[in-house]
Structure formats: C-alpha cells, structure tokens
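Human: Cast an eye over this sequence-structure pair and say how the chain folds.
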Amino acid sequence: MAILNCLSKNIPVLCYHDIGSEGGQSLKLFEEHLQVIKEMNFTSISAKKLYQIITREKKIAEKYIVLTFDDGHISNWLHVIPLLKKYNLKGIFFVITDFIIEGKKRTLNDIVSLNKLSNAFRSVLISSDYSQFMNMSELKSIIEDYGMEVYAHSSRHTPCFISLEKKDIFISSSHWGVNAIYSPEQKGLPVFPIGSAYVYNGYWPVKGKQTQEKYMEIDGVFFRKRTTEERYNFCMDDFKRCYEKIRTINKSELQFFCWPWGHFDKVSLQAIKDTGFQGAFTLERFYNGPGSNPFRICRIGVGKKKTGTWLRNRLLMHSTSIGSRLFFKFFRKKVRE
C-alpha cells in the first residue's frame, strides 16, 4: 500500500501573478506554458474539486492541474482570461478585497498602460488609485460568464518591518510595502527588511517623542514591536472583512485563502480557521492529493522568465506523489518572537 501511495498521482498547483504587463511574465511565455499543459494532457480543475479530492470525497480520475493567479492585477482580466478560454483551461484568481471597486468591464482600449505589479500597489497606497486591479464587474464576469473561481488574498496584503536591521532610506524606488508603513511625505526615514504583517509581529513607527524604555529609536524615529495578541486581532479583523466581501462575490459554500507572500505561522493559521475558511494556498512544494492538508495546499511559484521547458520539467517532477515528496520545498515562516 505504501508503494502504491508513492506512485499515485500528485496534483501540481501553479502560481502566477501579472501577465503581459511591464515586469510580468510575457504573453508569449505564458501561452507557451498553456501549450505545454495541453500537450502533457493535463486537465485543469477548480479549487472546489481539489478540496474534494484532498478530503477524499472524490478520486483522482485524470492528470489534474490547478492554475492560480495572485493579487488580481488587471492583466489577469485582459490577457489571462482570453487565453485560458482559448485553451479550455480553468483559473483560480486570488484577489485583495479592499482593492475591489465598482466599474465597468474594461478592454485593452480602456487601459492607457499596464503598470508592473509593484507600481500598481504603490498607486493604491499613495493615491488610492485602484485602476490596475480587477473591479467588481470583471470579477463577477470571471465567475458567471467564464465559469472560473475568485477567492481571498487578504484585505490589504499588509507588510511590516520584520527587524530593525537598517537596509536603506525611504525613496521613491523603495519596496512598495514601505508606502504602507510610512506616508509619502516621510521620504528619507530608515527602511528595514519587509515581510508579511500577518506572520511577523513587526516593528511599527510611532508618532511623537517617546521614551527608550518602551520604544526603540533609530535615526530619530521611534518604533514599537507589536504583541502576538495584537497580531492575531489584526489578522482576525483583516480576514473577517476579506471573508465577508469575497462571499458576496463568489457566493460559494467553500471559501479558500491564499497567503500573501506565501507565508504563514500557527497564529495566522489559527485566525484563518477561526474566520471560517476551509483551506489555504501556500508557496510550499509538496504533495497535493487524498489526505493532504487543505490548509497547506502547495504551489509551484512561476517566475516571469520561466520557459515552457522549465514548466515541462517541473510538471514531470511533481506529477506523482513520490516526485512531489522528493522535490519538496517548504516555504513556511516560523516566527521566533
């Protein structure tokens, strides 16, 4: 039985972001990937069906694959949806719910330019410009007109400073996440390593002159370290808001979450379960199939320059249970506060 389990099929799950935009994967390479998937006789399935297989409600009957797209960049609507339809493949789109606004379904003629994803985040944080992310009409069309799925990727994809090891100063080209911690007029302040605010307690700037006993001072700026209880409450607030909004969009009895940066820990995972989500997608590489953990659905991150040959090799490596276990890659942040 153990040998049969090792030789059983694994379900590869791919993770893409923006396609056909500045800084994203080219349309040529993405279509090359879709051609490889079809040539290798994979059938794309929904998150719901993947969950039913994991929980042993359904069996693996074919060579299955799952295609996921993080962040909800407008390129997913303009480029990804038409190509998935062309190749008769399904997609799962994880969106940041605070970034979803009302609006009409857009075409390429409605978009002056496709910003790279980091600049799309900056535009939201600096000027509340959500135009580079899919709107409500587009997301509903993805579900109702194209039969694909939309799920949660947090309310705001919030970052934090994970240590006080100074790396740089805040300038326009700093990591987009710095704009979520400082306001635009605070250029020149110290910058530290960035990570997920859902997983790290983090260090946060405080206003006004403080005492050294309670706060840490660097370059004239005082920082406060958040407690684990505060982080759990922050997660619950974000996840509940996210959960309620995504349910109004997808109207699904099953709700799935995709971890920002792919990172999670026991505190954030507990918050996800307490919110009511039935599963979560990570960026670990391991086995997806009957009996695997629905809260640790593993994905293969696809870099913007990865070719069809690269994808073919990865799918061969991860097409069986034994292959997925041999070529594992855990990408879990174990926070030591």
